[in-house]
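Internal tracking record. Fields below are filled automatically when a chain is submitted to the structure queue. Please do not edit lines marked as system-generated. If the sequence contains nonstandard residues, flag them in the REMARKS field before resubmitting.
Queue: standard
Priority: normal
Entity type: single polypeptide chain
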Amino acid sequence: MSANSDKATGLANQAAGKIKQGVGKAIGDKNLEAKGAGQEARGKIQKTVGDAKSGVKQVADKVKKAVDDL
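SYSTEM-GENERATED OUTPUT FOLLOWS
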């Protein structure tokens, strides 16, 4: 996946996880609440991976530009 798709999917999973947690809490379904927490955590990790990919790409682009300028 690209950095942007990792970020977008991560944010979507975070949002869906929060919704599941809220619904689970509202109806007293601890299993749904736990699944939501897990999905939210996976989303945070996925977004972090996307952020890291973006950072690595920025550094690589700067190195390439510096080499090209030589």
